[in-house]
Structure prediction request, 128 residues.
Amino acid sequence: MVILTHQAVGRARERGSLMVELLVAMALLSSILLPVAYSVASEKRLARATYQRAVAMEIVDGEMEILAAGEWRAYAPGTHEYSVRAGSVTNLPPGHFLLSLEPARLRLEWRPSVQMHGGSVVREVMIQ
Prediction:
C-alpha cells in the first residue's frame, strides 16, 4: 500500500488544476478560432467569385464592342453559342457565352455552369 504524504497530495492537486485550466484554455481557443477560420474561408470564396465576375465583365464588354462595331452581321437572328477570343477565359469557371440577335437588339451573356461563381453577366446593345 502506498501512503501519500501531504506534499505529494498537494502536487497531485496542482497537476489536476493545471489540467483543468489547460482544457478550459483549449476550449476557449477553439471556440474563438473556428468562427474566424470559417469567416476567412467564406471571404476567400467571395473574393474568388468577385474576381471571376470582373473577368467575365471585361470579356463580355470587349466582345460586345467588337460585335457592336459590325461583327454582328456575321450571325443570323436567334440565339447562338459564342466563342470568345480572350485568353483570360481560362480564369473563368465552366460556363458558356450566348449571343442573342433580334431585329433591333444584340445581347451577349456569360452563364457559369456552377452556382456561386460570380453569376451571369449580360450586355445589350440596340442595333439598326
